[in-house]
Every structure is written in structure tokens, then in C-alpha cells.
Amino acid sequence: MAVTMREVAAAAGVSIKTVSNVINDYPAIRPATRERVLAAIRELGYQPNLSARGLRSGRTGVISLIIPDLKNAYFAELADAVMRAAAKERLAVIIEQSGGDRDVELEILHGPRMRMVDGVLYSVLGVGQEDTALIADVPTPMVLLGERIFNGPADHVTMRNVEAAQAATEHLLSLGRRRLLAFGRHPHEKVGSAGLRLKGYQRALEARGIPYDESLAIEVRRWHRSDGAEAMRKVLTSGLEFDGVMAFNDSIALGAMRVLQEAGLRIPGDVAIIGFDDIDETRYSLPTLSTIDPGREEIAETAVRMLQERIKADDGPPPREFEAVFRLVARESTDTVPH
Amino acid sequence: MAVTMREVAAAAGVSIKTVSNVINDYPAIRPATRERVLAAIRELGYQPNLSARGLRSGRTGVISLIIPDLKNAYFAELADAVMRAAAKERLAVIIEQSGGDRDVELEILHGPRMRMVDGVLYSVLGVGQEDTALIADVPTPMVLLGERIFNGPADHVTMRNVEAAQAATEHLLSLGRRRLLAFGRHPHEKVGSAGLRLKGYQRALEARGIPYDESLAIEVRRWHRSDGAEAMRKVLTSGLEFDGVMAFNDSIALGAMRVLQEAGLRIPGDVAIIGFDDIDETRYSLPTLSTIDPGREEIAETAVRMLQERIKADDGPPPREFEAVFRLVARESTDTVPH
DNA sequence: TGCCACATCTCCAACGTTGTACTGTGACTC
DNA sequence: GAGTCACAGTACAACGTTGGAGATGTGGCA
């Protein structure tokens, strides 16, 4: 059987509560007593029972990270960053996959497991602005991640999507490219990564006085590599002319790149291409992929810190919005070459 | 405040224990009573308090998955498969990253969080056969994953490394390639993925009567893409001649492939290459990468099922070994082309 | 009719921890 | 020397749930 406080207390010759006080850094304890208790803890190999602590104090030291899909490199890297940030705060992380499906996302949020975590990092694709009410009624402290809900009922950590997309587009324009695909559009979406990044694309064109041509805004439903490849195949078949691609994420950029190369097009010679997210793979593709570093570390650390603040002070300030600093990373896929 | 069983019981006009019995599918309950209780649960939106349940029953419904690194595609896909398998058993998964560091791996295993999970899936890189004793004393039900510990103190799920590596090598040999790099060696390692896969490589050569040339066994320390690229760069600089690469995982294969192409070598024309793991990316690289599908789904499902068995019957059978069925996936990187 | 078996439900205690309230002991103040 | 105060530690109850034993009712059978 596992060692409990009772046994530690007996070994140290103090009451159970004193053991508890030592563990929780309660100040009024004589150094000698503290030492005796700590020695007993070491001796017996005592580990606190987190279920009991959770029951009594209402805190479990576990937070939940709800994401669409770990197989997606962006979310895997986000999860990694979150877990490292959480480790610093001594928090464990339960990861839940939603598949990006709205109903699943809401189900998880209202499921019994929410009662066993201190807080949630909620990174959604399906749930949107119109679901604000369904999210507001969740009693668990929450931080929203991503671009689906702004000015919602909880703290929100995101990146400057519009500005970043504008910078990426401007980067291609500065190379002299003029027929740029906006690659990854979701029709009718205003908010959300796709909508915001399209807006950035449009702004960059506008700033240069170039008219927006909707036929260059290519729809890509899911943002997986295979979808990018498929969409690019269709574009090539259609005979559409272009000399640059502003892809809304790295995965579809890589998928598109592969199809372009198969078709005998040179990158960046014939087509310059830039992605979005700075996933690890962009550093090793052929050619290496220019992209936007969304500030993942900063996002993860800020989100965990904000959540921790909410957990500790359950009556904190009104919902906050935080936008991480992005960075354009120019690599081979947008090298300056004779057109 | 959250709804408790007490309130449900009051609403349904039964005792708390009856509510508990309904929830836990205790058989002797009149259908009418069950209905009333379920109705009250729905009505009030009751959710069980998992901390309390964990304290009382010793079960939390959470398992821990300890892996080296989520950023590594292999482990991300493993984690995904494990989480889907766990969801079927209504288990939540806490993921812990060890960085593949032996001390961290052991620390996590002996940490306080082990007391809050019902079981552990332990996928290690640092801990090895000689640490068996340190693992045996952990009271938590455990299933070992990977190739570091065989015939250990716990159930073990793995793949047929030697046979799979032999098949991959034989695949290259069957194309007429004779100077094959064993790419990914860890010097002095006998057990472990690197050791076993090297052995498979050697067996394949042996079966064809080809002598083993140690200079073709290339060391790659960490199995990340960048390490594969770097190692291949060294190989090319050294002037070593070869016409095939049997890479010990997909990431280093992809890294190597990129360097080979930069150097103007054609794949599979000049160099045929096969990887190991069948990560998603192998389907989208240029060329697509032949590889070994280790049977990830089967591994994940078997591991979770075995762990669940251990959790439910704490006095089960002696440790079991399970080896998943692998499959060779031939893609473009080993197409038949004139040499 | 009396007794037993069974189904159905309830009562009590306990899981290991922490919050609240309290006791005892000196030291210091006036 | 009485009152006050800070410190060090303790006792008790409670968090929400479930295991086990017990209570109650119901029907069957001798």
C-alpha cells in the first residue's frame, strides 16, 4: 500500500496536519520540526495523493489542452510548447483531440473530465463566435487559443493574423511577383485563420494598388498536406497563371510545393511560395520553406500563465486579449532569383 | 457550485448510494428507479467528481503516456493512436515528455503524478535493460513500449524490428542494389531500435552471402531530420560509394534524401532509399518514401487493452510480450528504375 | 402460515487531504 | 503581574464518492 501522511506523521512524531503544513509551505513551523518531517517523507518515500488533494482543495494540478489533431504538426508543436510551459508551473496536461469538429469540441468542454482539471486551454476549429454562450457557461477557468472567437467570455491568446499575412504577401510582392495565389481559403469565413489571412493578403495588394482577383483565392478545405497537394493539382489543371503562392499554413504549402515540382515548375524560379506557422519541417524541405513564425513559445507561455492566474484568483479581471509577436522567416522558397 | 450526488438523490427521491449504483451499472435496480435517477441526472446536469471517485475507489480513469518528444512525428502519431484507443475505453491520457533522457524518464515514473493515474504506457529511449529493477518497484500498472527492455517486469508491446529491417534491406537488395548504407547506427547498442535494425540489415546481407562492411553502417545520434541531413552530408564529403540507404527511421531518411537531392543525386535512380515507421509525411515527400509500417494502430490498441486488463485485475498473468505485425510499404523512393 | 430467498434499496464508514478553529507556550508591554 | 500577542502545533470536520453490511419488502414454496 502507498504511504500516507498518517504514517509520515507517526514517523516524525507530529500530527497529520503538521505534515500537511510542511508540504504546503505554511510559514509557522520550527525549522527543526520541518526537518524531521522532511526526513520522514524522504525515508518513507511519501508521495501526496493527488486525488485526495483534489477532492479537498478543489485543485488537481492538471489542465486540459483541447486541440483538433496531434498528427497535425502545428498542433503537435503547440502541444509540446504548452507542456513545457505547464511543466514550469508544475502542471500536468491532459490532451483531448476533437478532430476540429464543433460538436465534439463542445462535448469535451461539457464532459465529466472538465471536473477533474483546474483549467482548460481551448484551441478550436469548429466552435465559433456564435457559440460564445455555450462556452460562457463553463465554470472551469479557460483560455481560448486561435482565431475562432474574439472578445469572447474568456482570456484569449492569438497572433496578429492579418498583419502577418499582409507581411507574407508583401514579401512576395517585394520579389516582383504579381499573380499571387491566396492558398487555403474557406469560403464565407470572415473570422478564423482563413478569413483573417485572406484579409491580410487583400490589404497587402491594396497597399500596392493591385486589384484583388477572386479567382486567385484558392479554397483548401482541411489544411493537411494532402489537401494542399490536391488543391494545387486542380489549379494546375485549370491553367490558372500565377508566380507566387501565399499559403495559409505550412502543411498545405508543402503539399502544393510537391505538386508544383512534379509538374516541372521550379521553386522559387517559376513560383515563389511562403507558408505560415514555421513548423519544424519547413527547415528541411527542398527547397526550405519561407514562413511566418507565429510566436508559438510566447503563445504557449502566455496562455499557461494566464490560465494559472485565473485558477489562482477565481475572481480576476475581465477577459483579456493577447496577441503574440510574429516574425517573417525568409528561406529558399522565396529567394531572389531572376524571374 | 457543482451538482453532487446528494442533490441528484434528493431530486430523484432515493439515497445517494442508489444514484451511485445507477451510475456504476449495479444490476439490482428497478427499471423505474433507474429511469428516475437518470432523469434527475440529466435535469441537473450532474457530472461525477473524478477526484472523489479516484480517492474512494482508487481509480481515476486517467492513464499516463510517457514519450520522449511530441515534436517527433513518430511519437506524435503514436500518441494520437494511443489516445484514440484510450477514448474507446473511456480513459483520459496525460502525456509526459522525457526528452529521451534516462534520468527524466525515471523521475517521471517515480513522481507524484503516478499516484493519480491508473496506469502507465512507458515509451523510453534512455532507460534500458539494466534499469529493470528501477522499473519493477513501481506499483502502478504498466505497459512498456519500444525496444529498450525485453522480458522486463511488465507487459511489453513492440514490433518485429529485426525481421522488418531485414525485409527493408532485402527490398533494396531485390532491386539489385549492393552497397547499402545502414543509416542510423548507435555504436555499441545491441538492444534498442538501432541495434535491432542493424541486426536485421546484417541478416539480410548474410542471407545473400554479402559480407558486412562496417564502414557502410553510419552513425546518426538523434533520429531527427536535421541529424539525418548532417550525417548524409558527412557521408557525401567522405566520398563513400553507395547505391541504397536503409534508414532506421523516416525522419533521418527524409533529411538524408534532401541532402542527396541537393547534391544532384537522383532518387531512386542513383540512390534508392527506404525508411522506417510510415509517418504521414512519407506519403507526401518528393519522391514519396518507401518505409516499414510498424503496425502503429495495433500497437496502440494492444497496449491500451493490456494496460486496462492490468488495471482491472491487479493480480494478472505474468508479464506478456506482444509483437505487432509489420508491413513493407513500397513507394517511389525504391521504384524499379535502370541503375 | 411460517420461513426462506431474493431483489431492491439504505446506512455507515472510509478513502487522504486541507480549512477552520482552537490550545498551549513563551516573550513582551505597561 | 496581568494582559496581549505571535508562534507552533493540534483536533475535528469536511470534500464527494463507493464498498460492505444491513434493512426492508415481496413472492414462492413447503
From TrEMBL, chains A, B:
Domain HTH lacI-type per the UniProt entry, residue ranges: 3-57
Record key words, sorted: DNA-binding, Transcription, Transcription regulation
SUPFAM superfamilies (UniProt xref): lambda repressor-like DNA-binding domains, Periplasmic binding protein-like I
Single GO term (MF): DNA binding
Xref: Gene3D superfamilies: 3.40.50.2300, lambda repressor-like DNA-binding domains (1.10.260.40)
Stretch forming the signal peptide: none
Keyword Transcription regulation: yes
InterPro entries cross-referenced by the UniProt entry: HTH_LacI, LacI/GalR-like_sensor, Lambda_DNA-bd_dom_sf, Peripla_BP_I
Presence of keyword Heme: no
Coiled coil: none
Protein name stated in the entry: LacI family DNA-binding transcriptional regulator
